[in-house]
Write a structure and sequence with these properties.
This protein is α/β, with parallel strands linked by helices. It has helices at 6-20, 44-48, 60-73, 91-98, 101-104, 135-138, 151-163, 228-239, 257-267, 282-294, 317-320, 324-336; strands at residues 24-28, 53-55, 76-80, 114-119, 144-146, 168-173, 213-216, 221-225, 244-248, 251-253, 270-277, 303-307. Strands 2-1-3-4-6-5-10 form a 7-stranded mixed sheet, sandwiched between helices. A 5-stranded mixed sheet has the order 7-9-8-11-12, sandwiched between helices. The longest helix has 15 residues, at 6-20.
């Protein structure tokens, strides 16, 4: 079984999808000849030609609008928004057209498209290359929202997204493109090759949308996380010696609420970690769901660890990022009751 980082796994998923289905087309800013700023689409134009892998103008609204027309015509666009921070010009198309087409046409038309985008901080990208806008999309009926945390899941989830008849927003945590991150920015980077989840099966396989993964079993506390924060959470519970169960959501919409409920009913405590700002973040939705569904099993209030309600600062990136210190404080608080 080959070892891959997340970039390589995503690239492999593109190639498998495009070889299997001639209707799959890939485009975005620098996503053709150049292979994308992170090289996720590298080599696609060479193998599949300029009609199936091509560069788009610097117009996110235009990229999404073109994909809408392609999907309505029967193609399967797999598009890249270079950074999630720049997805906003395309937001009107995503909300008004992409998410609504099946409903507006009474199921006559579907939108079989995937919108990929690197998101999150940890690379000193500052306020315009570090945002986590996932909650803006989980709020919109008609969209599925996926965030992988490992190369193995990234490939399987992307292939499942391409094969889904409905639109999928696929956010890729760029801090862990090349290796898992435990939140300790002052430590050497660990490559994916030293992580078990870098063993990526060859050929086609899918990871089902809407199914979370229990990445660490435990009895005293449930930790819910996704993307980069999965690895931060795993490191934090180990460092604090807790018998915690860590759940990687993988898909925010549809949400695997059954796995969450079962875990919280067992542990009686819940901590939720997200990199995005605190107010109206997806962690707030998770907190409400746990409170509504597991109230009589809870031994303590649900706790959240999040980013701050500020722009992502360049000079103070690690003061913003919800790392080990904030995780430790939250873990102590939820376990103290």
């Amino acid at each position: 079984m080959p070892t891959m980082n997340m970039i390589q796994a995503l690239n492999d998923a593109h190639k498998i999808a495009m070889r299997a289905d001639p209707d799959v087309v890939v485009f975005g800013e620098d996503a053709g000849y150049f292979g994308g700023v992170f090289r996720v689409t590298e080599g696609l134009q060479k193998e599949f030609g300029k009609t199936r892998s091509f560069d788009a103008p610097i117009s996110e609204g235009g990229i999404v609008a073109a994909a809408v027309g392609m999907a309505a015509y029967g193609l399967k666009p797999l598009i890249e928004i270079q950074f999630a921070d720049y997805i906003y010009p395309g937001y009107d198309q995503i909300v008004s057209e992409v998410a609504k087409m099946r409903y507006r046409t009474g199921g006559e038309w579907t939108m079989p498209m995937v919108i990929r985008s690197p998101y999150g901080g940890g690379i000193f990208g500052g306020q315009t290359h570090s945002q986590s806008p996932e909650s803006l999309f989980t709020h919109i009926a008609g969209l599925k929202v996926v965030i992988p945390s490992t190369p193995r899941d990234a490939k399987g989830l992307l292939l499942a997204a391409v094969e889904d008849p409905d639109p999928v927003i696929f956010f890729e945590p760029k801090r862990i493109y090349n290796g898992p991150f435990d939140g300790h920015h002052d430590r050497p980077v660990t490559p994916w090759s030293k992580h078990q989840a870098s063993d990526v099966p060859e050929g086609h396989y899918t990871v089902p949308l809407g199914k979370a993964a229990i990445v660490r079993e435990g009895a005293d506390l449930t930790v819910l996380a996704y993307g980069t924060m999965v690895h931060v959470a795993l490191a934090a519970v180990e460092e604090n010696g807790l018998d915690a169960e860590v759940i990687d959501l993988r898909t925010l919409v549809p949400l695997d609420i059954e796995t969450i409920e079962k875990s919280v009913e067992k542990t009686g405590r819940c901590l939720i970690a997200q990199e995005a700002p605190r107010t109206s973040g997806f962690a707030a939705e998770l907190s409400a769901l746990v409170q509504e569904r597991c109230f009589y099993h809870l031994e303590a209030p649900v706790e959240r660890v999040t980013g701050w309600d500020t722009p992502y600062p360049h000079a103070y990136e690690w003061a913003y990022f919800p790392g080990p210190k904030r995780m430790k404080k939250a873990l102590e608080k939820v376990m103290a009751v």
